[in-house]
Design goal:
The complex is a heterodimer of chains A (247) and B (227). With 247 residues, chain A is of the alpha/beta class. Helices cover 24% and strands 26% of the residues of chain A. Chain B has one domain (14-221): Glutaconate Coenzyme A-transferase. In chain B, the strands form two sheets. In chain B, strands 4-3-2-1-5-8-10-11-12-13 form a ten-stranded mixed beta sheet, with helices on both faces. In chain B, strands 7-6-9 form a three-stranded mixed beta sheet, with no helix packed on it. In chain B, a hairpin with a 4-residue loop joins strand 6 and strand 7 (122-123). The chains are: A alpha/beta (247), B alpha/beta (227).
Chain lengths: 247, 227
């Protein structure tokens, strides 16, 4: 059953020193900034972080890396024009990097959540990222064996949760959220708003509440009209001033 | 197709190349445009082509870059540039987005490259420099996923060496995956035939077909109407 907590600090309390944390987001879109800020506050360290990137600018994951809370990062695209905190930690030898093609990262997470022991993928075959991995030819095509990535805790961002923990996301901020929610022992979600059961059409649920353990809602006014994802464009505009505060 | 009278005495600009690629994409295709130069192709797609653009961070039906009040931090493309959505757009998570690629559902992917081999091997993710921080993103998935992989690049590196080579010396992104190479000096078609791969020059620009063949280190089939 999904629990609701009032603060991001309570929501991240399960993350321990040395935990493997699945961190949602593609760039800054979908990164659970408030949960990461709370993690930073908590002082938790020695983390293995699984995320698409390794932090941008001076927000979110970049700050965790800056403060040397991350021992290892498993990601597809760490190097960016504004990934200076990762770059510095990497060059100083303070952080370990496992580079994974983006689709393999997603599928390894999906496999973990779906109880798949390993899978053969064509991605990466014949490249340096497949060195030392088992390969097999199946029906004339070459594949590489890849293993699941499980997390102790997933920290993700969604737009709306109902009281049953069912989630809706917003636009390309969805990215890794739904797969990471399935792949961790404990999934923590920050949402813009919480709504009563019945407010989300069951046909529209993206992540069912069974995958969701802890939710913290940033919006204290869950029933505020005009803040429904998938609603009219003017509703999204109304939601923007709140999002702007963590821009 | 823009094959007619296409061989010319001057090289193609980046804009010309983008126009050429756009014109060669079949109407109704689902297409992924890589970061950088390939993004320009979208400027030349005509509405009547009814092309649907995929972005690997989880969207089909991507519209042009967003400006001013349209900018939404949660609506970005694979290059993390704010974009817009076309009517009929859809959003999906990363595992679905890469299943679209890996599962062979995309018709065309257009990518940049450091090198392409005469066998269609692609090198576009790393220069292999020892001090570089590696980053791969979706490059390897894109390379092996789409039904057709088009590469856009200059034919020669700054030091004058060709970037279409017998064997890639840069780290590989994928094997035998490139079907066409659009360069400033011409368009090359790679066929994975039963007797092994072969490269055919479709059109030449700024050099004669024979001059191009002389500069390249692998057998090149010249166009039938060799000028």
């Amino acid at each position: 059953m999904t629990e609701f907590v009032d603060t991001a600090a309570e929501a991240v309390a399960r993350v321990q020193d040395g935990s493997t944390v699945l961190l949602g987001g593609f760039g800054n879109a979908g990164q659970p900034m408030e949960l990461i800020d709370a993690l930073l506050e908590s002082g938790t360290t020695g983390l293995t972080v699984v995320s698409n990137n390794a932090g941008q600018g001076d927000r979110g994951l970049a700050l965790l890396i800056k403060e040397r809370r991350v021992r290892k990062v498993i990601c597809s695209f760490p190097r960016q024009s504004d990934s200076w905190h990762f770059d510095e930690a990497y060059r100083a030898g303070d952080i370990e990097l496992e580079l994974v093609p983006q689709g393999n990262l997603a599928e390894r997470l999906r496999a973990a959540g779906a109880g798949i022991g390993a899978f053969f993928t064509p991605t990466g075959y014949g490249t340096s990222l497949a060195e030392g991995k088992e390969a097999r030819e199946i029906d004339g095509r070459h594949y590489v064996l890849e293993y699941p990535i499980r997390g102790d805790v997933a920290l993700i961002k969604a737009h709306t949760a109902d009281d049953a923990g069912n989630l809706l996301y917003r636009k390309t901020a969805r990215n890794f959220g739904p797969v990471m929610a399935t792949a961790a022992a404990h999934t923590v979600v920050q949402v813009q708003q919480r709504v009563p059961v019945g407010s989300i059409d069951p046909e529209h649920v993206v992540t069912p509440g069974i995958y969701v353990d802890t939710v913290t809602a940033l919006d204290a006014e869950p029933d505020r009209p005009g803040n429904q994802p998938g609603g009219q464009p003017e509703n999204q505009q109304e939601a923007q001033p709140q999002e702007a505060k963590h821009a | 197709m823009s094959t007619e009278n296409s061989t010319s005495g001057t090289t193609l600009s980046r804009e010309d190349l983008a126009r050429l690629v756009a014109a060669d994409i079949a109407p109704g295709s689902y297409v992924n445009l890589g970061i950088g130069q390939p993004t320009k192709v979208s400027d030349h797609l005509r509405a009547d082509q009814q092309i649907t653009l995929h972005t690997e961070n989880g969207m089909l039906g991507m519209g042009p870059e967003a400006h001013g009040e349209e900018i939404d931090e949660e609506l970005i493309n694979a290059g993390k540039i704010p974009v817009t959505e076309h009517p009929g757009a859809s959003y999906f998570h990363q595992a679905d987005s890469f299943a679209i690629m890996r599962g062979g559902h995309l018709d065309v992917c257009v990518l940049g490259a450091f090198q392409v081999s005469a066998a269609g091997d692609l090198a576009n993710w790393s220069t292999g420099a020892p001090d570089a921080i590696p980053a791969v993103g979706g490059a390897m998935d894109l390379a092996i996923g789409a039904k057709e992989v088009f590469v856009m690049m200059s034919l020669f590196a700054k030091d004058g060496t060709p970037k279409i080579v017998a064997d890639c010396t840069y780290p590989l992104t994928g094997l035998a995956c490139v079907s066409r190479i659009y360069t400033d000096h011409g368009v090359f078609l790679i066929d994975q035939g039963e007797d092994g791969p072969s490269v055919t020059l479709r059109e030449a620009h700024g050099m004669s077909p024979q001059e191009l063949a002389d500069r390249l280190d692998f057998p090149l089939t010249l166009p039938a109407n060799n000028s």
